[in-house]
Write a structure and sequence with these properties.
- By secondary structure, the chain is of the alpha+beta class.
- It is built from one helix and four strands.
- A four-stranded mixed beta sheet has the order 3-2-1-4, with helices on one face.
- The radius of gyration is 18 Å and the shape is globular.
Length: 93
């Protein structure tokens, strides 16, 4: 997944969980909406939590390469803020 992308779960209540390591080496599990998650001492513990929370659907758990820090303040992949652009409307003749 790229930043700003979300996963559509086909109408089910199950959500995609992301797991990976944070900058301190701890394992992180977090749903894509940033509403549920936690820090874990092992990958197995993070995976167990993610599977429990999403109804035991392993196809809805994705391992993130690189650094993945826990952020429960919103979306796991924050979309960039929209840029304000000037719009000039031509004058009627």
């Amino acid at each position: 997944m790229r930043q700003g992308e979300t996963f559509l779960s086909g109408g089910s209540d199950a959500s995609l969980f992301l797991i990976g390591r944070n900058s301190r080496g701890n394992w992180v599990a977090q749903d894509q909406r940033g509403r549920r998650g936690g820090l874990f001492v092992s990958r197995a513990a993070a995976l167990k939590y993610a599977l429990f929370e999403n109804g035991n659907r392993p196809h809805l758990v994705v391992t993130i390469p690189g650094t993945f820090d826990l952020d429960l303040g919103g979306n796991a992949f924050q979309a960039p803020a929209p840029r304000a652009e000037a719009y000039v409307q031509p004058l009627a003749a």
